[in-house]
Write a structure and sequence with these properties.
It comes from Pseudoduganella plicata. There is one protein chain. With about 240 residues, the protein is of the alpha/beta class. The protein folds into two domains: about 120 residues, 3-Layer(aba) Sandwich (Rossmann fold), CATH 3.40.50; about 110 residues, Beta Barrel (OB fold (Dihydrolipoamide Acetyltransferase, E2P)). It contains seven helices and 15 strands. A five-stranded parallel β-sheet has the order 2-1-3-4-5, sandwiched between helices. Strands 10-9-8-12-11 form a five-stranded antiparallel β-sheet. Strands 13-14-15 form a three-stranded antiparallel β-sheet.
Length: about 240
């Protein structure tokens, strides 16, 4: 597991790091001191799990949870206040550690984390596709409906989510995003994929390269090596 600890108090981070470092399946641990650092670290470090304090200045743990890009890591909230329990579980937290906790209570939280991760790995090919993606743009969370996405394109460490209203950037790899989105999307180029329901025409030249013309006049590049798979997926979707 890759774990990100988010807490504005250094002693709290140190205690949790010490306990987690003793776990044999914890591969890496990173830390963030506030909500802004947490969102940056989540994008760069790509943790499996966030141990997330709730009561932090400026950006709370609940706001961090709501702003994480999909697919989001599992969240274990860690707080000194039990009044946050209901909103924490409303935010799909897998557990809620009330400070001060001991090693035994942490072990129970980790058991839940492991069970959820094992379940996700065993069902990743048959799980329900995502319906929406959350994109952070200058501190604002933008909700992008998957049904509105026409095509996807890589842009350095991001994926452009091309919709009729624009192309917001999601910090994600194209391969990982396609795995999460399910069979409704098909790769058509090393750097692009299309939503099958939006394809109106496939235009290829003599060499097999070309374009995929989409609803509303959008165009995505087509590579020869992906053409056969695209045509098969289009036939299967009829």
């Amino acid at each position: 597991m890759r774990i990100l600890i988010v807490d504005d108090e250094r002693p709290a981070r140190d205690k949790l790091r010490r306990l987690l470092a003793a776990e044999p399946d914890v591969a890496a641990i990173a830390e963030a001191r506030d909500g802004f650092e947490a969102l940056e670290a989540a994008a760069a470090f790509r943790p499996d799990v966030l141990f997330l304090d709730i009561d932090m200045p400026e950006v709370t743990g609940l706001e961090v949870a709501a702003s994480l890009p999909a697919p989001a890591p599992l969240i274990v909230f860690v707080t000194a206040y039990d009044a946050y329990a209901v909103p924490a579980f409303d935010a799909n937290a897998i557990d809620y550690l009330l400070k001060p906790y001991d090693a035994g209570r942490l072990a129970r939280a980790l058991a839940r984390v492991r069970a959820r991760l094992d379940g996700a790995r065993s069902s990743c090919s048959t799980g329900q596709p995502l319906r929406k993606l959350l994109v952070m743009e200058r501190g604002v969370t933008r909700v992008v409906r998957v049904a509105d996405i026409l095509w996807l394109a890589t842009a350095d460490n991001y994926v452009e989510l091309h919709t009729a209203a624009g192309a917001p950037l999601l910090r994600q790899t194209l391969a990982a995003l396609l795995a999460a989105l399910g069979p409704g999307f098909q790769r058509v180029h090393r750097r692009a994929a299309v939503r099958l329901a939006c394809v109106e025409r496939v235009a290829a030249n003599d060499k097999g390269d070309g374009e995929v013309l989409l609803r509303g006049g959008a165009r995505a590049p087509l590579s020869r090596q992906y053409r056969a798979a695209l045509m098969a997926a289009l036939h299967a979707a009829e």
